[in-house]
Structures are given as structure tokens and as C-alpha cells.
Amino acid sequence: MTRSTDAGASVRERLRRIEGRHNALVKELRQAFARAERTAGGDCAIEGVRIVEEAIRSGLRFRAVFFKESAQNLAERLLPQIGSHVESSLLPDKLFDGVVPSETPQGVAALVRWKEFSLDDVLERLQVGPVIVVVGLQDPGNLGTILRSAEAFGSAGVVLGEGTVSPFNSKVIRASAGSLFRLPVVLAKAAGGLEKISAKLREQGVRLIATSSHKGMPVDQTQLAGPAAVFIGSEGSGLPRTVLAQVDELIAIPHAPQVESLNAGVAGSIVLYEAARQRRSM
Q1: Residue 205 neighbours by CB under 8 Å, 6+ apart
Q2: Could you tell me the residue range of the domain that residue 98 belongs to?
């Protein structure tokens, strides 16, 4: 028997076939996807080959991994990278497709433990780049883009304010391309709310800056290299007045007048890139 055959047999021995939709682990996975929330044990649901590989690379702790029967070959690729203590299940195609929200499931999903970060963790990283505070942003693709850009260009961390789409939404996770697993992300509600967070940022000498689609200092003329927190709102209504009343200055990204505004993902990425450019120029 060849080594590859031995490995394949070992993987098949790890897989436990589940037929019923009422299995406890399957129910946890379904609910975590449907509610875009963590389970009672603190796990979030992820799916897709690339995202599962990013979770492995990021050192996340796996609770359980699920494979679609017709994609069983993925188990031979992924299971050797996942601890042998992790529950590994094989689901019939129809059951798997009914649990995973993607229109074209790739055949693998998992429950993983999300890394918890506090506001203090973010404040300790102010030298890395600005804190990004997202308020009322509902588009998961835009939030995922901001998270990806925050890691790519440098950010102390991201604070998610009230009314913002859940970071555990599968589309957010997919758009972040794994950055959600590594970047310090703090839920404002868990940290006492935006007002308390803004006060703590001020205590640390952090300038509070709000993005605006129509007025404010051009972004390339704004000092972004020092300790700063950049507030980003939704495309439609922008930032709430209560938030705007707390900030020190407004910044805007100059663009052609016939374009009403940039989406939040693009705007956030431009601000993060400009902050990185200024840090490199120091």
C-alpha cells in the first residue's frame, strides 16, 4: 500500500457520515449561518475552500468540519492540516446544500472559534495605522472590503458600531478573504457603545475623523500618520449626527462631480491607503 493510499484511508476513518438534518452539530452550523451569529460556545460558521484554508493559516481553533459527499476529495486535502481531535463529518449533498448559504457551495464548511479582541488590544496597535470605526454599514461586501484593506494597508483595528452588518455574515467573511481572522475587530456594543469608545480614544490622544461624501478637508491634505480613528458610515445616509457631533474634523475624497459618492468599501480603502502612504513618507 502506498503512502498516499494510507493517507486516504486515514482521512476516511476520520469522517463520520451524518444523514439527518436534526443532528446537533448540523443544527449548530445551520443556525450560525442563518443568524450570522456565533454559537453559544463562541464559534462562527465558515464555508469554502479558500476561507477554510485561511482559518487554518490564521491559527483558528476548529470545533467541527463538514464535507459534502460529492466533494469528499477535499477532505484528503484539508483534514491533514486540521487536528485529529476535530469532529469531521460527511454530509449528503442535499443536506450540505441546505445548510450552507452559498448559491454554489464548494463542499466544505466548518465551525471555528473567533478570536476575541478588546478596545485595549486595538489601542496597543496605534502605531500600525488608524482605527477604523464603521457605523450603520449594512452591505456585507463593503464591510469585508474594509476589513481586507485594513489588514493590507495597516490598521490598529476595526470597531463595528450599532446598525452595522454582523462580521459573522458569510458574505462578510468571504469578502474579507481571511482578514477577519487576523485583524483586531471589536463590537462596539460589547465595549460599552460608541460614546464610551470615542471618549476612551480621546483620552489616548487619538484624533476622531469622519468621512464625508461632499464636504471636508481633502483626504490627501489631512494628517493621518499619527494616532487617528476614522469613522465610516453607510453609503445612503452617511454617519449619524450624534457621531458627527463627536468628531474633530471631516475629510472628503475628491472625485468627479457627476459621481454622487463612492461606496463605503472603496472610500475606506482609499483613506487606509493614504494613511499608509503618509506613514511611509515620514
Answers
A1: 227
A2: 3-113
Q: What count of other Cβ atoms lies within 10 Å of the Cβ of residue 16?
A: 12
Which residue is it, cell 484624533? 207
Q: Which of 42-56, 132-146, 202-216 has the lowest mean pLDDT?
A: 202-216
CATH number, domain at 216?
Answer: 3.40.1280.10
Q: What is the pTM of this model?
A: 0.92
Residues 53, 178: Cα–Cα separation, whole Å? 9
Q: With 0-12 CB in 10 A as exposed, 13-18 as middle and 19+ as buried, what is 218?
A: exposed
What cell was used for 156?
490598529
Q: What are the b/e assignments for 267-281, b being 16+ CB within 10 Å? A: bbbbbbebbbeebee
Q: Which residues, 6+ apart, have CB-to-CB distance to 124 below 8 Å?
A: none
Give CA–CA dist 186/182, Å, rounded. 12
**pLDDT per position as a tens digit, 79-100:** 999 999 999 999 999 999 999 9
Q: How far apart are CA 226 and CA 229, in angstroms?
A: 10
205 & 153 share domain? yes
